[in-house]
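Re-run with default settings, no changes from the original entry. Doing this only to confirm the output is reproducible before filing.
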Amino acid sequence: MVLTKEYRICMPLTVEEYKIGQLYMIARYSHEQSDSGEGVEVIANQPCEDPVHGQGQFTEKRIHLSNRLPYWVQAMIPKVFYITEKAWNYYPYTISGKPCSFIPKLYIQVITRYEDNNGTSHNCHKLTPEELAERAVDFVDIAYDEISAKHYKEEEDVRYFQSQKTGRGPLVEGWRNSSQPVMCSYKLVKSSFEVWGFQTKVEELIHKYTREAQVLAHRQAFAWIDSWIEMSLDEVREYEAEMHMETNARVAQAGLLSPRRLSLVSNPMNDSDEALEDSPHSSYITKSPTTKSPVPTSPKSPQTPTSPSTQKSWFSWS
């Protein structure tokens, strides 16, 4: 059985603004969460193309997280453990997932749509009646949902934060119904771990970590708005490349990279094709949501099925 949840994450932004804010947030968040070899290693970041969704950006990352998992999970996995995340960003529509060769029965898939509203779209993913019956909707409040004490920073508490450049904030109770502008990320997460005795526990753990990551990352995206609101797409891509190199260097210091990857770590952007070929998980590239259209012209882009529900298996957090 696949556990399906749709997280609705509102932000006091427009969809167009969030396009820049999301790129900045993911790059900075990944960098700040990477320490002592844990965190996110960037394998590839390159353009892709889909016949339905058009031009996009493909990324492949390795998420090293051995020491961040509960002890009962660590007992089941190798000491050096990572999950490979592959994502196709056809903004305002994205597909991402995290396959894991160490745990082949682990399945996680994320499909996201972004809309200029406060979470009122009933079925933006066009799910079937059967899928709607299985879907649970979870409204994520970036201001009032709790985060762990170790991640709390007073300057990032958006209940009190006010942007100097936009004047937005603080976010008071009920802000999603009163703030303008407002947009929503509709993040459909499907997870499955078909191992008897562990299925329910692991699936619940996946959604627990997914939710915590979304609350923290999105509140930071707003708290950091003065750092990115005036950036162009080219400028945020330059920042992204810089953060990727620094983040990879942190992972490399822990000795978790192969000699081949070490030779690429100084510039993952220019060597992305070679990095993809080097990846042991290249066979896990997800089939993208589809139509009966031809295969995308980009070899790294997923092939599109008629609806998100027809997409093949696999895992993500973007």
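Residues 193 and 201 are 9 Å apart (CA to CA). Residues 268-318 have pLDDT under 50 and may be disordered.
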